[in-house]
Amino acid sequence: MIFPGLTPGAPLARGSATYNGITIAPLGGNTSLWRWTKFDSSGNYDPTVDPSSPSFVQSTAAGIAAGLSEAQQPDALLLASSPGAWWFPLTPLPQVSISLSQPAARVDAQVWGNGTLQGLSGGAVVSSAGFNSSQLGTVSVTAPSGQLIDQIQFLGALVSSPNGYVLAIGALTLHPLSPDAIGTQYAIMPPPVAIQPIAALGQPYTTYRRRQADIDTSTLTLVRHSLFDVVWPAPPAPLPVGDPVTDPLQLPPPVQPIGFVAQREDSGMAGSATNIPGWTATRSAPRADGFACDHGEPLPAGRFGAGRSGGRMEPSRGRLRSVRRARRVE
User: Fold this and answer.
1) What is the rounded CA–CA span in Å between residue 5 and residue 9?
2) Which residues, including other chains, have CB under 8 Å from residue 330's CB and lie 6 or more apart?
3) Is the pTM above the cut of 0.85?
4) Residues β-bridged to residue 151
5) Closest CA to 131 of 141, 123, 122
6) pLDDT tens for residues 62-116?
């Protein structure tokens, strides 16, 4: 929650101010910006309007505060004023632009007065909402799917006001996610289906790297251990679809593998299959031209995955072979 009215007064008087991730500037050449604050510098309740503000701005701020209890009053109000005029529709309109350093899918704004709130993305208006309230209320603008609001504008309505015209802005609340994307969307979810087994990957290739001897402290004997590298053909990674922030509804269902658990089995020992601790992510690397395992067998796929198994007992017969199981998220 951001209160534009807490912006320091000197930059506002000069025509532009940046505070807490927002940049405030008047539009149209006839708008002046003032502040009403709820607390003094010590945190005590002391409602105050900029003393140099016109009398109609001060009376407007006092009227807004009087219509709310102390707990309901915002921490500050940004007051945009324009000078009065008798003739209609030539009364200058107060107009304020607030740029957001962090774009949002939706912006809620507390406002008082008569006018329009516009939400812009890249300089183009993508959402707007009118307001006309004699009490401080909330109005919202929401960006369409795939876009984010990076600027909002408060535009006063055409009125005849001989004494002057004021728009008051209280708290701004920025929503990084669209409200439509939050929670479980039963109406757009497909019915549940049985999990289908993932097709096995291609034949893995195990390559011996080195052997070492370690001491078995329980028997005080030397035990031979070996290090093996394993590679296997990997399918190309699927193209990304959707975005968790800007387009969450287009994200694919969570049925793709996120990693693999490798098993090690000594072909000379029945029932010796064991899982290698941890799991291997599904990321793969492109195969270099002419790449082949140490035993000369080329990998048939354009990409491959790789793993390593070390500190293992010598197999009694043959070489280690790896069997993969896909881990899935549902």
Assistant:
1) 9
2) 195, 254, 255
3) no
4) 99, 120
5) 141
6) 999 998 889 999 999 999 988 876 655 566 788 999 999 889 999 999 999 999 9
Within this chain, do residues 102 and 169 fall inside the same structural domain, yes or no?
A: yes
Residues belonging to the chain:
330
Find all residues with CB under 8 Å of 145, minimum gap 6, and list them.
178, 246, 247, 249
Q: Specify the CATH number for the domain of residue 142.
A: 2.60.120
CB-neighbour burial class of residue 6 (10 A; exposed 0-12, middle 13-18, buried 19+) = middle
Q: Which residues, listed in sequence order, are joined to residue 202 by a DSSP beta bridge?
A: none
- Encode pLDDT of 167-189 as tens digits: 999 999 998 877 666 665 555 55
Tokens representing residue 292 in the block:
């082949």
> Residue 26: which of 219, 155, 194 has the closest Cα?
155
- Distance, CA of 268 to CA of 181 (rounded, Å): 55
How many CB atoms neighbour CB 90 within 10 A? 9
Quick one: 45 and 148 in the same domain? yes
In angstroms, rounded to a whole number, what is the distance separating the alpha carbons of residues 25 and 265? 70
